Amino acid sequence: MNKKVKITDRTFKFDGYKIKHNLEYRGNGTAPDKRFDENTEGLCLFIWPSGSVVFYAYKLVEMFNHKKDKLEKNCLYKKMFKYQDVQGYKYRDAKDKLKAALDNLKSPTEKDSAGLKFKDLAKRFIKEGMEGSRLDGLDFEYKKETKTRYEQYIKSMLLLKNKNKDRIKNLTKAILYKNKTSNKPIGEYLCSEMNLWHVEVLRERLKDVPTTANSIVQMVSIIFKWAIANDIVKIDNPCKNYVWRASKPFRAKLFDDDTAKLRKHIEGKSFDFQPHFIACVGIHLYTGQRSKDIFELRWEQPNSLEEKESCSGWLVDGWENSERPKIYLWNMKNRKGASIHIDKDSLGFLKRLKEANLREKNKWALKSPYIFPQKKNPTKPVIAGSYIKLLKKLNKTLGFERLEGDNISRVRGERKIFTWKIARKTFASEVARNKGGTELASRKLNHSSPAITRKNYIVPDDEEMIIENLYEKNLPEKETAVVIKSPWNKKEDID
Description:
This protein is α+β, with helices and mostly antiparallel strands. The chain folds into 3 domains: 11-107, Double Stranded RNA Binding Domain; 110-246 and 474-495; 256-291 and 344-456, no CATH class. The protein is built from 17 helices and 12 strands. The chain has helices at 16-20, 91-103, 110-113, 118-129, 144-158, 165-172, 196-205, 210-229, 256-266, 270-273, 275-287, 291-295, 305-309, 344-357, 388-398, 420-445, 450-456; strands spanning 11-12, 33-37, 43-47, 53-65, 70-82, 174-177, 180-182, 297-298, 313-315, 326-329, 338-341, 482-484. The strands form 3 sheets. Strands 1-2-3-4-5 form a 5-stranded mixed β-sheet. It has a 4-stranded mixed β-sheet with strand order 8-9-10-11. The chain has a 3-stranded antiparallel β-sheet with strand order 7-6-12, with helices on one face. Strand 4 (53-65) and strand 5 form a beta hairpin. The longest helix is centred in the last third of the chain and has 26 residues, at 420-445. It is globular and about 70 Å long. The two termini are 32 Å apart.
């Protein structure tokens, strides 16, 4: 950069002490008050009227001014993360992340929006759209797992990087819908020509998987919302008037006899053969926490920002001998931190697992900071798919039935298989019934509202188990698409 942003008394050499003592807001009450680092070009702090302090990267770039119809230089800012000295988000972390943030600072030009296909917009969203704050103006970034999920959706369903040949066939087939023919996948259409019809066609292509269809349409909407907000495209969001398929609550839990059978199994000799898996089952069943938060737990508090961001939480120091042992979850789904009490059953599993790791055959686990590490790569925690085979075996051993199709009825006494989600709902139902009602269950599940807990998690003991499809197939018959022979031929690889 040839030219620095001109600032007078708000420019100084950043360090921990000077930053801490130069955070007084001196703005007009509406705009952020900025501080610039004299030593590090491209690094600054935003101090908002609310008191929030955030590290930003900045760069002078050429941007196309549509009103003036010409290119001109402007200063762009890229949000990095909040300044929170107590929690370790410090100046050195900002310097470490600066280069990546500056590399992502790109301005939209006239060329970007001309003849832009939706697949190219989707690729751009992967690179640029998931960085910085959300579009609704809230002061936080997309979580790591959200970014991963979005990227998977886009690559698999919109960019056609899908190993499922039948799925690819459905997404590329020509269909007749509302007296119009779609003869190519959604990614091949120009953004400028897309409207609600194109989105509904995508839904029709995925009508055999209605839950997935709704998720992908939501992804399309997010991409366009970002592109419109950043002046990359100049059309209305094609998903604006989309009618989402109706949803019904899914409430299911293990019955008491099933829960008793499961507890007897995991507290018995099965632990000696599968200590990590069985301990994971126990922690789910006895704490009711989200599976991701349990999978990414560390034995000890991390020492660096990088380590902290790669975990969900950790065991609080002294947990083995404490009268009130706790788990600290620092970044849950609701973006809040919380201390979770470790009950005696969960504590027993943790102690047994720690002892098991010292045995010869389990010494691989000692290489990992995580409570539940991947065996092939102990430096990483397990993921949702790590225990699938063991979960299937567990359900088969205990005689839990998988209910499918028309067998998913409301007849009392039918069983549902054990899953991580079912464990959470079983825990919630037991707390509500035996300990303190829905409000206590909601607090233990870290829900934002007891209403969420009551609607989706609590299954009264004397109520039939409610198991319903998430989405109804309620589209009018006249809107059903007809598959026709496709003239579209993919001539290029989508990278």
